Amino acid sequence: MSESLYASCAEVLSFAQSQKDDLSALLNPDTGFAPKLRRLCQEQLQEAEENADGRYSAEELEALRMESDTWGLLQAVIPMRKTKPPTYPRASQLLAENPYTPSSTLAQAIMHASRLLSELIAVREWLHETAPQPHSIDATTGYWKFTKHQLMQSLRMGKSLSLSGMDPDAVNREENGALASDDASYEKSLIHALYAHIRAGRLEDAIDLCKKADQPWRAASIRGSLLFQWRAIASEPREADDMDDADDFDSWRGNQRRKLWKSTCTRAALNPNLSTVERGLYAALAPTPQTASHLKAACRTWSDHLWAQINVVCEEKESAELSRLRESFWENPSETDLQGPDMHVGIDEDAEEEEWEREVRSSLESLRDVGVEEGPSSDNPYHQSQLQIILDNTSGLLETFAAHLEDGSYSPSDSEYPTMTRFFAHLCLFLQMIDLSPPPLATQVILESYLQVLEAAGQRELIAMYAGALGDNAVERYAMFLASLELSADRAERRLALTRARDHGLDMVRVAVVTAERTVEKAFSNLPPAKGPLPSVIGLQAPATDAELLLVRSIEWTTFMEDTFDTALEQANVILRYFLGCGRVQVAKAALELLPPELSSIKDPEELSNEYIQYRQFFQVWETLDRVTECQALEVPQMTKDTRAAWLSDYKTLVEQAREQIIILLTTEWLVADSERRTGDRRTRELIRIRQLYIPELIIRLHAMLYNSRTRIPENLKHTLQLADIVADSRYRLYDDFGKQPGRRISDYLSAVRQAVLGGLEGGGSDPFRVVTL
To answer: Which Gene3D superfamilies match (predicted)?
Structure first.
């Protein structure tokens, strides 16, 4: 399916949604929702026909054609169901005023009196419009030209004649009568063409074709199907436009004795001497239950069967109603009683109408599984859709299609799947806009399937519009889509995608929060848990994996708006807690750098605010230690005196800064207060793990930094011993954070302290603690 069609359909939907309170605009026959979508399908078909580049399979083209036809059907019947029809006089009322009311006027009154009949006639007109283009045949140069030549030749040679005459009934009247082969072939082609014209509702063209074939008698038999019309006596107001065509207004047309004509057509359709094709032609002209079998024998496609069934139903209903009108001079001239009683008196018309409607529905439902010789079968989704739309059962239609989607009857790999899901999705939305209330669960399933089609087609910018129609699930579904973007969209694209949620009526804040939650869930499902032996945090770390990057960037969704900063704070703590617990300091730092500075000013809830501030405190310490290492690496033997003095000043400042920051962190119950150690909840356990990972590391690194710098900064030896006092202080319980792993044991630290004590003797004397008092 062309990618432009997705966007074009979305444009039509967007415009229609802007007019959802204007029913007349949505149902406009030219610019309404259904006509626009039908036009889009037709344009795609025309483009495919002109280019013929193989982009579309035959199945896709057929699906597009059927979708176009179905939108035409919706436009034909939905306005009649959604708008209140004008009030028309009944046929009996017209006859009470004027017994000479023409049959065509009475037929119109009968149609207006029955909503179902009006709809069926509209469906019949739609079937005429969507019928295949009837083929024409070349005009003949004379009536049965070759047969006439054979007969003349036989007369000259004294041979027996194949026909006794040239009248139209000669072939059927005589037992062995036959036309010349060329004439017989032409006759067969003519009847096929006439049937195709009648199937397409092009009666006048069929009449013209008969005249060109020098068969005016057949033209007259076709014209006999027209109801008698005489506007001058129809008790109809004469419009101003009619003044220019006085002859048309005053003259009559149609068949005054149509009942007799219909009886004759019925007998012709039942005549076994006629060919099957010709019997089908007469059955199409006079569709009745008696001729229905011959009419259906001429049907090739499912649409043909639908047309035949509706033709029979409409003709029978009109004929039955007209036959009751004994007051009508034209329909019942021999029974006309201008002063007689109304034949409708005593008849429960409502009950009779309901019974007729049940019969009609039953007859149409038989088309569910009718066999066809050409085209898509009766169980094709579009054929089923058309049937259910005619039966006014769109809810059942949508529920059935949704059930097939769920049970896998329709596979996304099918070539027609995108076209079908697009049609049904827009059908759901159309019914919603005009308040026909499609079933909610079925609508969700169908829209979800179409959203998957859009995602597979890369139509990201359209997801929000269709997700917005999911009602209560709209936010969750659009959030699922945004989460599915993973790392493929940069920050700007993510912001734009989130903004589309607001543009299509979704709660942007809620979408952002749910998207972040789903992204975090997806990332954690692919990451190992932060438990087990404590990892090393020294040395070069591996680059972040895709799963880690996804977790880092999950925080972006809640940093676009101030309204989501509180959620961002909570999620930031979870993410930082995980990475620090895994020893991934650099990845955690990358996550911290994505966060807006405003998070630091959030005060409530206090527990989360304090945790976040303490993470920032830790990274400030860690960065200072890195700067000390970098500064230390700048020392080289070839430095001048002034350069060395400047370097030493910077180095001393950084070391002192690092010492002060670490001491503050160690003495302020970083992350876990002493009273919280016994709670045992998951968060506390994770925070204790972080302390066990980094408190010993910071203590040992600070000790090493101070001890190694004692030759340049002599007072640092004193600071190493003072640090030992802090570690031993029961107020801070720092010794509890040392573990049993090498490098993190309290014994490892005590060995370093012992070395520092011995370092106190380097300046001479026997008191190793003398440096503390200096």
So the answer is: 1.10.3450.20, 1.20.190.50
Q: pLDDT per residue over 120-151, tens digit each? A: 999 999 999 999 998 878 777 777 777 777 77
Does the structure show a pLDDT above 80 at 766? no
Question: In whole angstroms, what is the distance from residue 466 CA to residue 9 CA?
Answer: 11
Would you give the DSSP letter of residue 87? P
What is the rounded distance in angstroms from the CA atom of residue 707 to the CA atom of residue 701?
Answer: 10
Q: Are 67 and 283 in contact (CB under 8 A)?
A: no
C-alpha 436/C-alpha 456 separation (Å) is: 30
**Residue 270: exposed, middle, or buried by beta-carbon count in 10 A (0-12, 13-18, 19+)?**
middle
Of 571, 592, 450, the C-alpha closest to 513 is 571
- Go through the chain and tell me how many residues it has: 774
Q: Please, what's the b/e burial string for 653-687 (b: 16 or more CB within 10 A of its CB; e: otherwise)?
A: ebbebbbebbbebbeebbbbeeebeeeeeeebebb
For the chain, the domains span 97-148+179-238+247-365, 459-602, 612-773
Given the candidates 3.40.50.300, 3.40.640.10, 3.60.40.10, 1.10.3450.20, the CATH classification of the domain at 97-148+179-238+247-365 is: 1.10.3450.20
Cα 115 from Cα 80, distance rounded (Å): 8
Contacts of 376 (CB under 8 A, 6+ apart): 62, 66, 302, 382, 383
Tens digits of residue pLDDT in 697-746: 999 999 999 999 988 998 898 899 899 999 999 889 899 999 888 878 89
Distance CA 417, CA 407 (A): 14
Long-range contacts: 440-446, Cβ < 8 Å, 24+? 440/471, 441/399, 441/402, 442/395, 442/398, 442/399, 442/401, 442/402, 442/403, 443/398, 443/402, 443/469, 443/470, 444/470, 444/471, 444/473, 445/402, 445/405, 445/406, 446/398, 446/401, 446/402, 446/405, 446/421
Residue 255: strand pairing partners:
227
Residue 605 backbone zone (phi > 0: left; psi -120 to 50: alpha; other: beta): beta
CA–CA separation, 138 vs 157, rounded Å? 32
- Judge whether 548 and 587 are in contact, CB under 8 Å: yes
Least Cα distance to 126 among 320, 327, 307, 385 occurs for: 307
Of 324, 419, 431, whose CA–CA distance to 90 is shortest? 324
- Give the whole-angstrom CA distance, residue 538 versus residue 298: 87
pLDDT in tens, 45-82: 888 887 766 667 788 888 899 999 999 999 999 999 99
Comparing 234-248, 302-316, 409-423, 560-574, the range with the smallest average pLDDT is: 234-248
* Of 64, 7, 49, residue with least CA distance to 418: 64
pTM, two decimal places: 0.75
Cα separation, 6 vs 151, in Å, equals 65
Per-residue pLDDT at 773 exceeds 80? no
pLDDT for res 275: 87
Q: How far apart, in Å, are the Cα atoms of 14 and each of 20, 75, 459?
A: 10, 19, 15
Residue type, 215: Q
Contact (Cβ atoms closer than 8 angstroms) between residue 730 and residue 706: no
Q: What percentage of the chain's residues is helix, strand, coil (to nearest 5)?
A: 65, 0, 30
